[in-house]
Design a protein that fits this description.
This protein has 265 residues and is mostly helical. The chain is 62% helix and 0% strand. Helix 3 (46-60) crosses helix 6 and helix 9 (168-199) packs antiparallel against helix 12. The longest helix has 32 residues, at 168-199. It is flat, with a radius of gyration of 23 Å.
Length: 265
């Protein structure tokens, strides 16, 4: 059974007339429920549970997050959490939503921006959030966006292409493509940072060692293309920390530009 179907089943079990297809905890996140079920009013709140889980993930990693551990941090029984959250996977969804937060306000100059500048701002804003909260990258994506903050980010990305003439499906495909670049690049960066921190080596030293290793392993006869790369300034010459990300994003936007022009014509 897929994640969406599981959500629907849990929602039906909690309230057959809800109509959202979401579990109770996500309906609470939207303000559609005051509390998770019948009976005496609980002392816990969903935001407190999510906050405790996020604190654990940020400090110890997502592997530290379990229903039992979160309950312990809150000083309550594990079973009391299940009045709000049906499973750890459901809690992960709520944690991710809290972690990404709402999209930051656009700067005043954005009033004169076109679709390209707006999408660039959207991509960089997402990347900044993920880099600042890298634990989010350890949570698998199991369903389309259906939480308040995630949907706000989705809306901002789609709105960036208003007036382009692109079909709605093309807009959706665009933000999925850019979102994939953002997540992949942020994941690689987070992995590299973790490895460097654990090694106790400065980033510049780690890069220099990598280059030395490649020169020992690759030669002009066995790896001519890698040798040409090493002889260039590719590793040290750009001078722009975000060069790789900027390059990838620009190529996506360059590819989209002819389609926008075609739709406008």
């Amino acid at each position: 059974m897929g994640a969406i179907e599981k959500w629907a089943v849990m929602a039906d079990e909690d309230d057959e007339d809800s109509g959202t297809g979401l579990p109770a905890s996500l309906e609470m996140a939207w303000g559609l429920r005051e509390r998770p079920g019948k009976g005496p009013r609980p002392t816990l709140t969903l935001p407190k549970i999510v906050e405790a889980a996020v604190t654990l993930a940020a400090g110890e990693g997502t592997d530290a997050v379990s229903m039992g551990r979160v309950a312990k941090e809150l000083g309550v029984s594990t079973m009391s959490l299940y009045r709000y959250v049906a499973a750890k996977e459901e809690l992960y969804v709520l944690m991710s939503d809290a972690g990404v937060g709402t999209p930051p306000p656009l700067p005043p100059e954005a009033a004169g921006w076109g679709w390209r500048e707006l999408l660039t701002n959207w991509a960089y804003a997402q990347r900044a959030v993920l880099m600042a909260n890298s634990w989010i990258l350890r949570i698998p994506i199991t369903a389309p966006p259906a939480t308040p903050n995630q949907l706000a980010w989705m809306d901002r990305g789609l709105a960036a292409m208003a007036g382009t003439g692109l079909k709605e499906g093309e807009k959706l495909s665009t933000i999925i493509l850019i979102g994939g670049l953002v997540r992949n690049e942020a994941t690689m960066a987070a992995d590299m940072i973790d490895a460097i921190v654990k090694s106790g080596t400065a980033p510049e030293q780690a890069l220099a060692q990598y280059v030395r290793t490649l020169r020992l392993l690759a030669g002009p006869d066995s790896h001519p293309a890698v040798t040409r790369l090493l002889d260039s300034d590719a590793f040290t010459g750009s001078g722009e920390p975000d060069y790789q990300f900027r390059f990838g994003l620009d190529r996506i936007l360059d590819g989209l530009a002819p389609l926008v022009a075609e739709r406008a014509g």
